[in-house]
Every structure is written in C-alpha cells, then in structure tokens.
Amino acid sequence: MAEEVVAEVEAKPKKPILLIILGVVGVIVLVAGTVVATLFLSGAFNPKPPSAQELEAAAAAAAGADGPGPSKEDCLPKLKEKGEAKGDAKPGAKDGGKDAKADCPKGAPGKVAKSSPELTRFEKTYMQIDREFLVNLSGSKKVMSVQMAVMTHYDDRVFENIKRHDFALRSAVMDVMRMTTEADLVKPEFRKELALKIRDVMNTLLEKFEDFGGIEDVFFTNFIVQ
C-alpha cells in the first residue's frame, strides 16, 4: 500500500524552474517599462532650457564679435558736473573733425546724469558773444542793439561750434530780431520770449551743422532801443 502512495507522488509533474525565472524577468521588464514611460511623458528626457546667465553670456559674445563701437561720450559733448575742472573734456566726433568717427550715431542726445547718492548738479558755463547785434525794428525807424551771452551744461565744444558757425548764427539771430515791432517792446515778457526764440534758432542751426545744439539759455548783457 505504501509503495502505491510513493508511486502516485512521484507521478505528479514538477514546475520547471525556467518558467519561474521567465516570470520574474517579465515582471521586472514590465515595471521598468512603466517607469521609463512615466519619465518620458513627464518630460524628464527633454533638453534643459538655457539659463538667464547663459543667454546673457551668449548675447555678450555676439555683441563683441564685431568689436565695441564708439560710445555716445566719444561722439558728442558731455555734461560737465558741478566742480569739474575746465579743460578735462574728452575729444569727440565734432571736435574740429580731427577725431570724428564714421559710425557715430546722428542726432542730439538726452541729458544723462551720472549715478550718485547725492543730487547731481551740472556746471553752468557761459560765453559772451563778441560782436553786438544791430537791427531795425519792423515797420519803424528805431534800431535795436543787443549784446548777449550763452550758457551750456556741456563742455567747451558747444562754444567751439558757435564760433565755427558765427556767420550763419548771426544771420539767423538778426532775422529773428528784425521781426520785433514797437508794440512788442512794451510786453512784460518780451525780452524773455526773444531770448527763447534766439536760443531755439541757434540750436536748430547747430543741430543742422553739428548734429548737436547744447545752448541752454541766452542772456542779454546789453539791450538798447533808440
């Protein structure tokens, strides 16, 4: 009887070890595939975008490929700060044409104050125009004789430009003065308005010839009508 039981047990088939191993490997592959698919869908394998520092470095490298261009200070008169010694101005594009740069930008710049913890104040520089301006009043036998000075916050190149274009500036100023009538003389703001008109016409001519005006104010040092 015992022999029959042993024979029956031995007759039962055994699970092959190979099938067990294949099953384990299959489970591992399935889990790994799920993890990889999840990472792919979440964008883990996408290339990392460049940082702000990398973008700035690339832009700087591209800008420096052609070499630095002339600065605005090299091309135009600079503002003179309070207490700055005269004669320290750097030569610019319009300084007699000697140091002019072909690639300097055109047009008059705005005033840019240097950064400072204190209030920035600019040096006022004056120049007396040598010869007087003498014209007849409009529709009158009276004559108006005027001497004037100009003021600027910029360096001495403004005054050099005024001297260089003296004839053109005198003609334009006298054209403005000839428009004056006897009725204009009694207006309270006449001299102030005339000074503004003269300043504007002078700056317009300087911008035409030198791409920059720079005259801030016009002052009458002598004013006679007779």
Outline the structure in words:
The chain starts with a helix and ends with a strand. It has two domains: 17-65; 77-226, Tetrahydropterin Synthase, Chain A (2-Layer Sandwich). Strands 1, 2, 3 and 4 form a four-stranded antiparallel β-sheet that branches. 43% of the residues lie in helices and 12% in strands. The relative contact order is 0.11. With 226 residues, it is of the alpha+beta class. It has helices at 2-11, 17-41, 52-63, 72-75, 157-164, 166-178, 182-185, 190-210; strands spanning 125-128, 133-136, 143-152, 217-225. Mean pLDDT is 76; it is low at 85-102. Helix 6 (166-178) runs antiparallel to helix 8 (190-210). A hairpin with a 6-residue loop joins strand 2 and strand 3 (143-152). The protein contains eight helices and four strands, in the order H-H-H-H-E-E-E-H-H-H-H-E.
Keywords:
single chain, 226 residues, alpha+beta, Tetrahydropterin Synthase, Chain A, 2 domains, 4-stranded antiparallel sheet, 43% helix, rod-shaped
Number of DSSP helical runs = 8
The CATH topology of the largest domain is: Tetrahydropterin Synthase, Chain A
**Main sheet?**
4 strands, antiparallel
Helix fraction bin: 40-55%
Q: What is the radius of gyration?
A: 43 Å
| Low-pLDDT stretches | 85-102
- The CATH superfamily of the largest domain is known as Band 7 domain
Shape: rod-shaped
Ends apart, CA distance between termini = 158 Å
Instruction: Give me the strand/helix succession.
Output: HHHHEEEHHHHE
Q: What percent of residues are in strands?
A: 5-15%
- What number of structural domains do the residues give? 2
Mean of pLDDT: 76
Q: Which CATH-level-2 architecture of the largest domain? A: 2-Layer Sandwich
CATH class of the largest domain: Alpha Beta
Total strands: the figure is 4
By helix and strand content, what is the structural category? Answer: alpha+beta
